[in-house]
Automatic annotation (TrEMBL):
Family indicated by similarity: Belongs to the major facilitator superfamily. Metabolite:H+ Symporter (MHS) family (TC 2.A.1.6) family.
PROSITE patterns, per the entry: MFS
A single cellular component GO annotation: plasma membrane
Protein name in the entry: Putative proline/betaine transporter
Gene3D superfamilies per record: MFS general substrate transporter like domains
Major facilitator superfamily (MFS) profile domain: residues covered: 14-421
KW Transmembrane (keyword) present: yes
Listed PANTHER family: SHIKIMATE TRANSPORTER (PTHR43045:SF1)
Organism: Tamaricihabitans halophyticus
Length: 436
Protein backbone atom coordinates (compact mmCIF):
# COMPACT_ATOMS: atom_id res chain seq x y z
CA UNK A 1 0.00 0.00 0.00
CA UNK A 2 1.26 3.48 -0.86
CA UNK A 3 -0.17 5.53 1.97
CA UNK A 4 -0.28 9.32 2.05
CA UNK A 5 3.24 10.65 2.74
CA UNK A 6 2.07 12.48 5.85
CA UNK A 7 0.34 9.47 7.35
CA UNK A 8 1.54 8.44 10.81
CA UNK A 9 1.81 4.82 11.93
CA UNK A 10 -1.54 5.24 13.71
CA UNK A 11 -3.19 6.60 10.58
CA UNK A 12 -1.81 3.75 8.49
CA UNK A 13 -3.25 1.26 10.97
CA UNK A 14 -6.63 2.97 10.77
CA UNK A 15 -6.57 2.89 6.97
CA UNK A 16 -5.65 -0.82 6.94
CA UNK A 17 -8.35 -1.65 9.49
CA UNK A 18 -11.00 0.33 7.61
CA UNK A 19 -10.03 -1.17 4.26
CA UNK A 20 -9.92 -4.79 5.46
CA UNK A 21 -13.17 -4.47 7.39
CA UNK A 22 -14.98 -2.85 4.48
CA UNK A 23 -13.62 -5.49 2.10
CA UNK A 24 -15.14 -8.22 4.27
CA UNK A 25 -18.46 -6.38 4.45
CA UNK A 26 -18.61 -6.07 0.66
CA UNK A 27 -17.44 -9.66 0.19
CA UNK A 28 -20.44 -10.83 2.20
CA UNK A 29 -22.77 -8.42 0.43
CA UNK A 30 -21.63 -9.30 -3.11
CA UNK A 31 -21.76 -13.03 -2.45
CA UNK A 32 -25.49 -12.73 -2.16
CA UNK A 33 -25.74 -10.82 -5.43
CA UNK A 34 -23.66 -13.40 -7.27
CA UNK A 35 -25.63 -16.28 -5.78
CA UNK A 36 -28.86 -14.49 -6.72
CA UNK A 37 -27.65 -14.40 -10.32
CA UNK A 38 -26.31 -17.94 -10.42
CA UNK A 39 -28.31 -20.28 -8.18
CA UNK A 40 -30.90 -18.76 -5.81
CA UNK A 41 -33.62 -18.69 -8.47
CA UNK A 42 -33.41 -22.49 -8.67
CA UNK A 43 -33.01 -23.48 -5.02
CA UNK A 44 -35.11 -20.87 -3.24
CA UNK A 45 -37.68 -20.00 -5.94
CA UNK A 46 -37.91 -23.27 -7.94
CA UNK A 47 -41.66 -23.25 -8.57
CA UNK A 48 -41.50 -20.22 -10.88
CA UNK A 49 -40.62 -19.68 -14.51
CA UNK A 50 -36.81 -19.13 -14.77
CA UNK A 51 -37.08 -15.42 -15.63
CA UNK A 52 -39.66 -14.88 -12.86
CA UNK A 53 -37.45 -16.80 -10.43
CA UNK A 54 -34.54 -14.56 -11.37
CA UNK A 55 -36.64 -11.45 -10.76
CA UNK A 56 -37.75 -12.78 -7.36
CA UNK A 57 -34.14 -13.59 -6.55
CA UNK A 58 -33.12 -10.02 -7.41
CA UNK A 59 -36.14 -8.81 -5.46
CA UNK A 60 -34.73 -10.42 -2.32
CA UNK A 61 -31.42 -8.81 -3.26
CA UNK A 62 -33.16 -5.40 -3.32
CA UNK A 63 -34.50 -5.86 0.22
CA UNK A 64 -31.04 -5.05 1.56
CA UNK A 65 -31.20 -1.61 0.00
CA UNK A 66 -34.51 -0.94 1.71
CA UNK A 67 -32.83 -1.92 4.98
CA UNK A 68 -29.74 0.21 4.40
CA UNK A 69 -31.38 3.56 5.33
CA UNK A 70 -32.56 1.90 8.55
CA UNK A 71 -28.98 0.86 9.24
CA UNK A 72 -27.80 4.34 8.33
CA UNK A 73 -30.23 5.85 10.85
CA UNK A 74 -29.39 3.45 13.68
CA UNK A 75 -25.62 3.32 13.19
CA UNK A 76 -25.42 6.98 12.20
CA UNK A 77 -26.91 7.84 15.58
CA UNK A 78 -24.48 5.51 17.36
CA UNK A 79 -21.52 6.76 15.34
CA UNK A 80 -22.18 10.40 16.25
CA UNK A 81 -23.06 9.61 19.86
CA UNK A 82 -20.68 6.78 20.84
CA UNK A 83 -17.92 7.01 18.26
CA UNK A 84 -16.90 5.66 14.87
CA UNK A 85 -14.78 2.77 16.17
CA UNK A 86 -17.36 1.10 18.44
CA UNK A 87 -20.04 1.41 15.78
CA UNK A 88 -17.90 -0.25 13.11
CA UNK A 89 -17.31 -3.29 15.33
CA UNK A 90 -21.08 -3.79 15.56
CA UNK A 91 -21.66 -3.43 11.80
CA UNK A 92 -19.03 -6.05 10.94
CA UNK A 93 -20.29 -8.54 13.52
CA UNK A 94 -23.88 -8.22 12.24
CA UNK A 95 -22.83 -8.72 8.62
CA UNK A 96 -20.79 -11.82 9.49
CA UNK A 97 -23.64 -13.39 11.46
CA UNK A 98 -26.16 -12.80 8.65
CA UNK A 99 -23.85 -14.19 5.97
CA UNK A 100 -23.08 -17.30 8.01
CA UNK A 101 -26.84 -17.79 8.43
CA UNK A 102 -27.33 -17.71 4.66
CA UNK A 103 -24.62 -20.33 4.22
CA UNK A 104 -26.42 -22.65 6.65
CA UNK A 105 -29.96 -21.99 5.39
CA UNK A 106 -32.07 -24.98 4.21
CA UNK A 107 -33.44 -24.70 0.67
CA UNK A 108 -37.00 -24.66 -0.65
CA UNK A 109 -36.95 -28.44 -1.12
CA UNK A 110 -36.24 -28.89 2.61
CA UNK A 111 -38.52 -26.38 4.36
CA UNK A 112 -40.72 -24.98 1.60
CA UNK A 113 -41.76 -21.33 1.53
CA UNK A 114 -39.99 -20.65 4.83
CA UNK A 115 -36.66 -20.87 2.97
CA UNK A 116 -37.10 -17.73 0.80
CA UNK A 117 -38.67 -15.93 3.78
CA UNK A 118 -35.62 -16.61 5.96
CA UNK A 119 -33.31 -15.80 3.06
CA UNK A 120 -34.96 -12.41 2.66
CA UNK A 121 -34.78 -11.75 6.42
CA UNK A 122 -31.05 -12.47 6.51
CA UNK A 123 -30.54 -10.26 3.47
CA UNK A 124 -32.40 -7.53 5.37
CA UNK A 125 -29.86 -7.83 8.22
CA UNK A 126 -27.02 -7.57 5.70
CA UNK A 127 -28.53 -4.34 4.46
CA UNK A 128 -28.82 -2.87 7.97
CA UNK A 129 -25.15 -3.65 8.56
CA UNK A 130 -23.91 -2.14 5.31
CA UNK A 131 -26.11 0.91 5.85
CA UNK A 132 -23.88 1.91 8.76
CA UNK A 133 -20.60 0.39 7.60
CA UNK A 134 -19.62 2.61 4.68
CA UNK A 135 -19.95 5.93 6.49
CA UNK A 136 -17.96 4.81 9.52
CA UNK A 137 -15.14 3.29 7.47
CA UNK A 138 -14.57 6.33 5.30
CA UNK A 139 -14.84 8.69 8.27
CA UNK A 140 -12.23 6.78 10.23
CA UNK A 141 -9.80 7.28 7.33
CA UNK A 142 -10.78 10.80 6.29
CA UNK A 143 -10.92 12.19 9.84
CA UNK A 144 -7.43 10.87 10.56
CA UNK A 145 -6.00 12.48 7.40
CA UNK A 146 -4.92 16.03 6.64
CA UNK A 147 -6.80 18.05 4.04
CA UNK A 148 -4.08 17.77 1.37
CA UNK A 149 -4.15 13.95 1.38
CA UNK A 150 -7.76 13.28 2.39
CA UNK A 151 -8.95 12.13 -1.03
CA UNK A 152 -6.25 9.45 -1.16
CA UNK A 153 -6.68 8.40 2.47
CA UNK A 154 -10.47 8.15 2.22
CA UNK A 155 -10.26 6.24 -1.06
CA UNK A 156 -8.62 3.19 0.57
CA UNK A 157 -11.81 1.98 2.29
CA UNK A 158 -13.51 2.56 -1.07
CA UNK A 159 -11.39 -0.28 -2.38
CA UNK A 160 -13.41 -2.53 -0.11
CA UNK A 161 -16.07 -2.70 -2.84
CA UNK A 162 -13.86 -3.88 -5.74
CA UNK A 163 -11.71 -5.99 -3.39
CA UNK A 164 -14.78 -7.60 -1.85
CA UNK A 165 -16.29 -8.12 -5.29
CA UNK A 166 -13.00 -9.57 -6.52
CA UNK A 167 -12.81 -11.92 -3.55
CA UNK A 168 -16.46 -12.96 -3.87
CA UNK A 169 -16.27 -13.47 -7.63
CA UNK A 170 -12.98 -15.35 -7.26
CA UNK A 171 -14.26 -17.76 -4.63
CA UNK A 172 -17.57 -18.26 -6.42
CA UNK A 173 -15.81 -18.65 -9.76
CA UNK A 174 -13.48 -21.26 -8.27
CA UNK A 175 -16.45 -23.26 -7.00
CA UNK A 176 -18.06 -23.10 -10.44
CA UNK A 177 -14.83 -24.21 -12.11
CA UNK A 178 -14.06 -27.23 -9.92
CA UNK A 179 -17.45 -28.85 -9.59
CA UNK A 180 -20.38 -29.83 -11.82
CA UNK A 181 -23.56 -27.76 -11.80
CA UNK A 182 -25.49 -30.31 -9.73
CA UNK A 183 -22.92 -30.29 -6.94
CA UNK A 184 -22.68 -26.52 -7.02
CA UNK A 185 -26.46 -26.20 -6.65
CA UNK A 186 -26.52 -28.83 -3.89
CA UNK A 187 -23.78 -27.48 -1.62
CA UNK A 188 -20.95 -25.74 -3.47
CA UNK A 189 -22.55 -22.30 -3.33
CA UNK A 190 -22.52 -22.48 0.50
CA UNK A 191 -18.72 -22.65 0.83
CA UNK A 192 -18.04 -18.94 0.09
CA UNK A 193 -20.68 -17.92 2.66
CA UNK A 194 -19.25 -20.20 5.36
CA UNK A 195 -15.72 -18.90 4.75
CA UNK A 196 -16.96 -15.50 5.82
CA UNK A 197 -17.03 -16.52 9.49
CA UNK A 198 -13.23 -16.90 9.65
CA UNK A 199 -12.62 -13.71 7.68
CA UNK A 200 -14.87 -11.65 9.94
CA UNK A 201 -12.81 -12.62 13.00
CA UNK A 202 -9.75 -11.06 11.35
CA UNK A 203 -11.68 -7.91 10.56
CA UNK A 204 -13.01 -7.60 14.11
CA UNK A 205 -9.51 -7.89 15.57
CA UNK A 206 -8.24 -5.12 13.30
CA UNK A 207 -11.10 -2.79 14.14
CA UNK A 208 -10.86 -3.27 17.89
CA UNK A 209 -7.15 -2.41 17.83
CA UNK A 210 -7.33 1.01 16.10
CA UNK A 211 -7.68 4.44 17.71
CA UNK A 212 -10.88 6.50 17.66
CA UNK A 213 -11.21 9.35 15.14
CA UNK A 214 -9.45 12.52 16.39
CA UNK A 215 -12.24 14.67 14.94
CA UNK A 216 -14.85 12.79 17.00
CA UNK A 217 -12.72 13.05 20.14
CA UNK A 218 -12.76 16.84 19.75
CA UNK A 219 -16.58 17.03 19.87
CA UNK A 220 -17.27 18.51 23.30
CA UNK A 221 -20.89 17.41 23.57
CA UNK A 222 -22.47 14.96 21.09
CA UNK A 223 -25.76 16.01 19.51
CA UNK A 224 -28.70 14.25 21.20
CA UNK A 225 -30.51 13.39 17.97
CA UNK A 226 -27.94 13.66 15.15
CA UNK A 227 -30.19 12.13 12.49
CA UNK A 228 -32.98 14.64 13.14
CA UNK A 229 -30.44 17.43 13.32
CA UNK A 230 -28.89 16.65 9.95
CA UNK A 231 -32.32 16.32 8.30
CA UNK A 232 -33.47 19.67 9.66
CA UNK A 233 -30.28 21.65 9.18
CA UNK A 234 -28.72 20.10 6.05
CA UNK A 235 -31.55 18.78 3.83
CA UNK A 236 -30.05 20.04 0.57
CA UNK A 237 -26.69 18.47 1.29
CA UNK A 238 -28.40 15.19 2.11
CA UNK A 239 -30.08 15.22 -1.30
CA UNK A 240 -26.82 16.10 -3.04
CA UNK A 241 -25.02 13.28 -1.23
CA UNK A 242 -27.72 10.89 -2.45
CA UNK A 243 -27.63 12.34 -5.95
CA UNK A 244 -23.90 11.87 -6.51
CA UNK A 245 -24.24 8.19 -5.57
CA UNK A 246 -27.16 7.22 -7.82
CA UNK A 247 -25.17 7.03 -11.07
CA UNK A 248 -22.22 5.02 -9.76
CA UNK A 249 -24.45 2.76 -7.66
CA UNK A 250 -26.83 1.83 -10.47
CA UNK A 251 -24.11 1.38 -13.08
CA UNK A 252 -22.00 -0.75 -10.74
CA UNK A 253 -24.76 -3.31 -10.20
CA UNK A 254 -25.47 -3.39 -13.92
CA UNK A 255 -21.79 -3.99 -14.72
CA UNK A 256 -21.22 -6.57 -11.97
CA UNK A 257 -24.54 -8.40 -11.50
CA UNK A 258 -26.85 -7.88 -14.46
CA UNK A 259 -23.98 -8.91 -16.74
CA UNK A 260 -24.63 -12.53 -15.69
CA UNK A 261 -28.34 -12.34 -16.51
CA UNK A 262 -27.66 -10.72 -19.87
CA UNK A 263 -24.84 -13.13 -20.69
CA UNK A 264 -27.26 -16.03 -20.09
CA UNK A 265 -29.29 -14.77 -23.08
CA UNK A 266 -26.21 -15.04 -25.32
CA UNK A 267 -25.22 -18.47 -26.61
CA UNK A 268 -21.47 -17.89 -26.78
CA UNK A 269 -20.90 -16.03 -23.47
CA UNK A 270 -20.55 -18.67 -20.71
CA UNK A 271 -20.87 -17.66 -17.08
CA UNK A 272 -17.19 -18.33 -16.47
CA UNK A 273 -16.23 -15.77 -19.12
CA UNK A 274 -18.39 -13.14 -17.43
CA UNK A 275 -16.86 -14.02 -14.05
CA UNK A 276 -13.35 -13.72 -15.49
CA UNK A 277 -14.10 -10.33 -17.05
CA UNK A 278 -15.46 -9.14 -13.71
CA UNK A 279 -12.34 -10.36 -11.92
CA UNK A 280 -10.03 -8.43 -14.24
CA UNK A 281 -12.13 -5.26 -14.02
CA UNK A 282 -12.27 -5.44 -10.23
CA UNK A 283 -8.51 -6.03 -10.04
CA UNK A 284 -7.90 -2.89 -12.11
CA UNK A 285 -10.15 -0.93 -9.76
CA UNK A 286 -7.77 -1.72 -6.92
CA UNK A 287 -5.32 0.58 -8.69
CA UNK A 288 -7.78 3.05 -10.19
CA UNK A 289 -9.74 3.88 -7.01
CA UNK A 290 -6.80 5.20 -4.95
CA UNK A 291 -5.33 6.84 -8.06
CA UNK A 292 -8.55 8.77 -8.61
CA UNK A 293 -8.68 9.63 -4.90
CA UNK A 294 -5.17 11.06 -5.23
CA UNK A 295 -6.08 12.97 -8.39
CA UNK A 296 -9.05 14.51 -6.58
CA UNK A 297 -6.61 16.01 -4.05
CA UNK A 298 -4.80 17.73 -6.91
CA UNK A 299 -7.59 18.66 -9.32
CA UNK A 300 -10.74 18.69 -7.17
CA UNK A 301 -13.46 16.15 -6.43
CA UNK A 302 -16.18 17.62 -8.67
CA UNK A 303 -14.04 17.65 -11.81
CA UNK A 304 -13.32 13.94 -11.65
CA UNK A 305 -16.91 13.18 -10.75
CA UNK A 306 -18.19 14.95 -13.84
CA UNK A 307 -15.80 13.01 -16.08
CA UNK A 308 -16.93 9.73 -14.54
CA UNK A 309 -20.62 10.61 -14.72
CA UNK A 310 -20.59 11.58 -18.39
CA UNK A 311 -18.39 8.60 -19.26
CA UNK A 312 -20.76 6.19 -17.50
CA UNK A 313 -23.80 7.60 -19.30
CA UNK A 314 -22.16 6.94 -22.66
CA UNK A 315 -20.59 3.62 -21.75
CA UNK A 316 -23.97 2.04 -21.03
CA UNK A 317 -24.61 1.88 -24.78
CA UNK A 318 -21.11 0.61 -25.57
CA UNK A 319 -21.33 -2.00 -22.79
CA UNK A 320 -24.20 -3.95 -24.32
CA UNK A 321 -22.98 -3.47 -27.89
CA UNK A 322 -19.68 -5.06 -26.89
CA UNK A 323 -21.40 -7.94 -25.09
CA UNK A 324 -23.59 -8.57 -28.15
CA UNK A 325 -20.50 -9.38 -30.22
CA UNK A 326 -20.06 -12.45 -27.95
CA UNK A 327 -16.31 -12.17 -28.48
CA UNK A 328 -14.24 -12.81 -25.33
CA UNK A 329 -12.02 -9.75 -25.86
CA UNK A 330 -15.05 -7.50 -26.28
CA UNK A 331 -16.69 -8.93 -23.14
CA UNK A 332 -13.56 -8.03 -21.20
CA UNK A 333 -13.48 -4.52 -22.66
CA UNK A 334 -17.16 -4.06 -21.73
CA UNK A 335 -16.56 -4.95 -18.08
CA UNK A 336 -13.26 -3.07 -17.75
CA UNK A 337 -14.62 0.10 -19.36
CA UNK A 338 -17.66 0.21 -17.09
CA UNK A 339 -15.59 -0.31 -13.96
CA UNK A 340 -13.06 2.30 -15.13
CA UNK A 341 -15.66 5.07 -15.22
CA UNK A 342 -17.08 3.84 -11.93
CA UNK A 343 -13.62 4.16 -10.33
CA UNK A 344 -13.28 7.74 -11.57
CA UNK A 345 -16.28 8.61 -9.39
CA UNK A 346 -15.75 6.10 -6.60
CA UNK A 347 -12.20 7.23 -5.81
CA UNK A 348 -13.09 10.81 -4.75
CA UNK A 349 -16.59 9.91 -3.52
CA UNK A 350 -15.71 9.23 0.12
CA UNK A 351 -13.95 12.56 0.66
CA UNK A 352 -16.52 14.45 -1.40
CA UNK A 353 -19.47 13.31 0.73
CA UNK A 354 -17.70 13.42 4.10
CA UNK A 355 -16.70 17.04 3.50
CA UNK A 356 -20.35 18.10 3.24
CA UNK A 357 -21.24 17.76 6.94
CA UNK A 358 -19.95 19.08 10.31
CA UNK A 359 -18.29 16.63 12.70
CA UNK A 360 -21.12 16.35 15.24
CA UNK A 361 -23.56 14.98 12.64
CA UNK A 362 -21.13 13.75 10.00
CA UNK A 363 -21.69 10.02 10.52
CA UNK A 364 -25.47 10.48 10.28
CA UNK A 365 -25.23 12.80 7.29
CA UNK A 366 -22.84 10.61 5.32
CA UNK A 367 -24.68 7.38 6.16
CA UNK A 368 -28.19 8.65 5.50
CA UNK A 369 -27.32 10.68 2.42
CA UNK A 370 -25.45 7.84 0.79
CA UNK A 371 -28.06 5.19 1.61
CA UNK A 372 -30.99 7.22 0.33
CA UNK A 373 -29.48 6.66 -3.09
CA UNK A 374 -29.76 2.93 -2.48
CA UNK A 375 -33.55 3.05 -2.47
CA UNK A 376 -33.71 5.59 -5.28
CA UNK A 377 -31.18 3.82 -7.48
CA UNK A 378 -29.22 0.67 -6.70
CA UNK A 379 -31.89 -1.24 -4.77
CA UNK A 380 -33.89 -2.18 -7.82
CA UNK A 381 -31.26 -1.72 -10.54
CA UNK A 382 -30.87 -5.45 -11.40
CA UNK A 383 -34.64 -5.98 -11.09
CA UNK A 384 -35.44 -3.00 -13.34
CA UNK A 385 -32.82 -4.13 -15.83
CA UNK A 386 -34.32 -7.64 -16.00
CA UNK A 387 -37.82 -6.17 -16.46
CA UNK A 388 -36.62 -3.83 -19.23
CA UNK A 389 -34.85 -6.67 -21.00
CA UNK A 390 -37.94 -8.87 -20.76
CA UNK A 391 -40.25 -6.09 -21.97
CA UNK A 392 -38.20 -4.71 -24.87
CA UNK A 393 -36.25 -7.89 -25.68
CA UNK A 394 -33.03 -5.89 -26.10
CA UNK A 395 -30.66 -3.97 -23.85
CA UNK A 396 -31.09 -0.49 -25.35
CA UNK A 397 -33.65 0.42 -22.68
CA UNK A 398 -31.23 -0.73 -19.98
CA UNK A 399 -28.55 1.55 -21.42
CA UNK A 400 -31.02 4.47 -21.36
CA UNK A 401 -31.75 3.66 -17.72
CA UNK A 402 -28.04 3.79 -16.84
CA UNK A 403 -27.69 7.05 -18.76
CA UNK A 404 -30.62 8.70 -16.98
CA UNK A 405 -29.25 7.78 -13.53
CA UNK A 406 -25.82 9.05 -14.51
CA UNK A 407 -27.36 12.33 -15.68
CA UNK A 408 -28.85 12.81 -12.20
CA UNK A 409 -25.40 12.34 -10.70
CA UNK A 410 -23.88 14.88 -13.09
CA UNK A 411 -26.50 17.45 -12.07
CA UNK A 412 -25.89 16.79 -8.37
CA UNK A 413 -22.13 17.16 -8.82
CA UNK A 414 -22.62 20.47 -10.63
CA UNK A 415 -24.72 21.77 -7.71
CA UNK A 416 -22.21 20.73 -5.04
CA UNK A 417 -19.56 23.07 -3.64
CA UNK A 418 -15.89 22.20 -4.16
CA UNK A 419 -14.75 21.09 -0.71
CA UNK A 420 -11.25 19.74 -1.40
CA UNK A 421 -9.50 22.19 0.95
CA UNK A 422 -12.03 21.86 3.78
CA UNK A 423 -10.77 20.80 7.22
CA UNK A 424 -12.83 18.14 9.03
CA UNK A 425 -11.57 19.14 12.47
CA UNK A 426 -12.94 22.15 14.25
CA UNK A 427 -10.47 23.07 17.03
CA UNK A 428 -7.88 25.81 16.40
CA UNK A 429 -5.00 23.33 16.72
CA UNK A 430 -6.47 21.18 13.99
CA UNK A 431 -6.04 23.90 11.40
CA UNK A 432 -2.53 22.56 10.86
CA UNK A 433 -4.24 19.73 8.96
CA UNK A 434 -4.57 22.10 6.02
CA UNK A 435 -0.81 22.16 5.69
CA UNK A 436 -0.38 18.38 5.75
Amino acid sequence: MNFPESATASTRKVIVGSTVGTTLEWYDFFLYGLAASLVFNRIFFPSFDPIVGTMLSFGSFAIAFVARPIGATVFGHLGDRLGRKRTLVHTLFLMGAATLGIGLLPTYDSIGVLAPVLLTALRFLQGISLGGEWAGAILMSSEHAGARRRGLAASWPQMGAPAGNLLAAGVMGLMLAIMPQQAFDAWGWRVPFLLSAALVLVGLWLRISVAESPAFREVEEPVKAPVLSVVREHPVRLLLAAGVRIGPDVSYYIWTLFIFTYAAQLEDVPRQLAVSALLVGSALQLVLVPLCGHLSDRFGRRRLYLVGGVGTALWGFAFFALLDTQQPVMVFIAAIGGLFFHAVMYGPQAALISELFPTAVRYSGVALGSQLSGIAGAAFAPLIAVALLETFENAFAVAVYVGACSALTVVAALLMPETTKTTLRETPASQEDLAQ
